[in-house]
Design brief:
By secondary structure, the chain is of the alpha/beta class. Helices cover about 40% and strands about 20% of the residues. The chain has ten helices and eight strands. It is globular, with a radius of gyration of 18 Å. The mean pLDDT is about 95.
C-alpha cells in the first residue's frame, strides 16, 4: 500500500470516519483516475488541477503525487476542508483549500484560466443551476483544458440517493421514480438531515440528456462519455470490479435507467 495512504490511516490527528472517506478518494484517483487521465493525455506532470467539491482532498493528493504543479480544492463544507488541510500536513503535500459556492460566487481572478484539469465528481446532481455551475467552472479552465464530471443519472436504481436515508425503503432501487406523494411518504422515516437533500435531488432530476444539453449550452465540447453498470469507486468501497456499458450506452434507456455512473470529459476549446 502507498506510504501516504498508510501514514493517514495510522494518524491519530483525524477520525476513522475521515480516514475512510479520504482513503477511498485517494485510492480511486491513484488506481483509476490518474492512470486513465495520463493514458488519454488529459493530465500530465506539471499541470494545474482543481476539484470542485473536493471534501478531504484525497483525489487531489493523488494528482499531486503524480506530478501536478498545483492543486486547488473547493467545497461548501468548511469542516471537510479543515480536515483536508490536516491531512495535507500529515503527508506533506501542498494543497490550496477554499470555501466557495460554484453557483452563487464568481471564481476568484487568480483562478481564471489557471487550470488544465478540473474534476467534478458526484456534485453536479446536487446543484440547482447546472448551466450556471458549468459556466463558472469554465472560467477557471485554460483553453484546451478539460473538465471531468461523474454523477449517477437520476433515473438509475439509486439516482435519488435514497440509500443515504438509512431506512427500510431507502434500500430499494427505483423508489424515487414513484409518484411524488408516495415517494415522500416512503422517505419520511429516514435520517432527517438527508431527507431535504433527497427532495432537492427529486426536483433537480439530473439525467444524461439534461447534463449534455447544459454542457452544450455553456460551450463545452463533449470529448468522451462513458456509462458504468458498476462504478469504479465500488472497488474501493465494496471490492467489486467496474463494469462499463459503453458499447450500448447510446440508447437513452441504458443511460438513464441502468447506469450507476455517467462519466464525461468536456473540453474547453480556445
Amino acid at each position: 500500500m502507498d506510504d501516504k495512504y498508510s501514514d493517514v490511516q495510522r494518524s491519530e490527528k483525524i477520525t476513522d470516519f475521515d480516514k475512510y472517506y479520504w482513503g477511498y478518494q485517494y485510492r480511486l484517483a491513484n488506481e483509476v483516475l490518474v492512470p486513465m487521465m495520463i493514458k488519454n493525455n488529459w493530465f500530465k506532470p506539471g499541470d494545474m488541477v482543481s476539484e470542485i467539491g473536493c471534501a478531504e482532498g484525497g483525489v487531489l493528493h493523488a494528482f499531486i503525487d503524480a506530478g501536478a504543479k498545483g492543486a486547488l480544492g473547493t467545497d461548501i463544507s468548511e469542516t471537510r476542508l479543515e480536515t483536508g488541510k490536516v491531512i495535507s500536513d500529515i503527508i506533506n503535500l501542498k494543497t490550496e483549500y477554499k470555501y466557495h459556492d460554484i453557483i452563487n460566487e464568481e471564481p476568484y481572478d487568480e483562478w481564471k484560466q489557471a487550470y488544465d484539469l478540473v474534476l467534478l465528481r458526484d456534485v453536479i446532481e446536487h446543484l440547482d443551476d447546472t448551466e450556471q455551475a458549468l459556466a463558472n467552472i469554465k472560467k477557471i479552465i485554460r483553453p484546451g483544458g478539460r473538465l471531468f464530471v461523474t454523477f449517477p443519472p437520476y433515473n438509475s436504481p439509486f439516482g435519488g440517493h435514497q440509500q443515504t436515508l438509512m431506512n427500510f425503503w431507502g434500500k430499494l432501487p427505483y423508489i424515487h421514480l414513484l409518484p411524488k406523494p408516495i415517494f415522500y411518504k416512503m422517505i419520511a422515516s429516514g435520517r432527517k438531515n438527508d431527507i431535504g437533500e433527497v427532495k432537492r435531488l427529486h426536483n433537480i432530476r439530473m439525467s444524461a440528456k439534461k447534463f449534455m444539453d447544459a454542457a452544450g449550452e455553456t460551450g463545452y465540447t463533449i470529448e468522451r462519455q462513458d456509462y458504468y453498470l458498476l462504478r469504479p469507486v465500488f472497488k474501493m468501497k465494496f471490492g467489486l470490479p467496474s463494469i462499463k456499458i459503453t458499447p450500448i450506452s447510446g440508447l437513452p434507456l441504458v443511460k438513464n435507467f441502468f447506469s450507476l455512473e455517467a462519466s464525461y470529459i468536456l473540453r474547453v476549446d480556445g
